[in-house]
Amino acid sequence: MKQFKELTAAVLTLLATVAYAQEGEAPAGPSDVNVLGKGNFTSFVTEHPLVLAEFYAPWCGHCKALAPEYEDAATKLKEKEIPLAKIDCTVEAELCEKHGVQGYPTLKIFRGPDSSSPYAGQRKSDAIISYMKKQALPAVSILDGDTIAEFKTADKIVVVAYLSADDSENSATFTAVADKLRDNYLFGTTTDSALAEADGVKAPAIVLYKTFDEGKTVFDGAFTTEGITNFANVASTPLIGEVGPETYTGYMAAGIPLAYIFVDGEEIKEKLTTAIKPLAQEYKGKINFATIDAVAYGAHAANLNLETKWPAFAIQDTTKNLKYPFDQEKEITEASLAEFVKDFVEGKVDPSIKSEPVPETQEGPVHVVVANNYEELVMDNDKDVLLEFYAPWCGHCKNLAPKYEELAALYFNNPEYKDKVIVAKVDATANDMPIEVQGFPTIKMYPAGAKDSPVDYSGSRTVEDLATFIKTNGKYKVDAYVAPPPEPETEEEEEEAEESKAEKSAEETPVGSAAPAATETPKETVKKATEGAQAVVGDDDYLPHEEL
Ligand SMILES: *[C@@H]1O[C@H](CO)[C@@H](O)[C@H](O)[C@H]1NC(C)=O
In the chain, how many domains are there? Predict the structure, then answer.
């Protein structure tokens, strides 16, 4: 999954960019960057097969830093017929929302209106140019007898389609998959039936070549984009892989449970890998098995409610975020694990739930949620509940705390609102929650009557904006915020105040939709987190997962 490596690099760049995000204005005069809006966005990305689009806000410092680089890249890529575009999200709110923009700038590569992927390169002119030129190469390489052998081993995972020359339908399907997954795997195709025969297949066929396990897997599903995508994802996952920064996101997104084998050395790793192989084979496609280096990522054991004692074994239900630690008093053997895994599959193992004690009384105004009162306080009632997931070591959370108290008081101290809105917080490092958050603080609204579809908060962390969010997304539309009386100011001062407010929210706004600046990710705080604290890792592609 080289994609994640690149993304991690991208995040580092984002963080680095903060240092020189200056006031610089975009150069005046004619620009090669195409300004797009609601009225012409779709037609533009339809007319141009490959477009890099920047979603930005004029006040955002990172956007200003990017502007000259982006302009330069646009000029140089113009002759390659790769247009660069920008969308001002303060004007085109609807368009930006439609494309899931959560922070500025967000850079996306469009291949037609329905296919976009995040730009994962650096924010420098040279990097943008080289990245986009590569993107412009065909996603599928055309292979023949001279090139196929080298191609098969050109990367860790290579996917080759053997098709007959007139099979345009399957060719189009394969190309569509390759377009989507081009950052993950190499794709090639050939119409030479002798090459198919040499590999023991007959067109139409797809073979995935890999440098591990059985070396290659032949596709045997229906020739649809979904079928091929699933095949590529399953066949590229090693029988017993390794959990690490590059693979974690993939495992979490796999949609099946992950069985962790914590090992603290090569010898025990070898021994357990050998012992568990038959199990992994038996449950292939149902449970992923992977070792994890306990020396580097031992803190992750706490996330699975395991003691830091090795070796250790646990299964995580990645869709419901439930943990099933294997009894650490028992010896880990092939037989003991076989029994445990069988019981797990048959639903005979109860998940382990970590919880702080349930508070006897809610002192208010911010309600304290723990794992064991989550159902009652958040889910099982007819109130609009705003819930903050925090970590004790998170600085952004500490900054938010007084404002959050102030917000909560607006409802808690009002007899009319008290029964309609709850403002609550949970220490997500000490309590197992049904969802795994991607960074701290994470704020979600669980509206009355629609608790199963919580709404993520992505605005600035002010009392006013949070109150507006509660009003907009809550069932009761409670409007509790009262603006403080305006202070008399001269016009000039007012303008300045506006500007500094904008700058401030720029800092607070998640950058690159991943929020490395606004939300504390485990990476930034890994040192603080290692003492048994839960290092939360999410499934957001942008987050660095070095800490696990
Ligand atoms: C797209 O529309 C906007 C107005 O919404 C206009 O300013 C811009 O020039 C148009 N861009 C192109 C490439 O036609």
Answer: 4
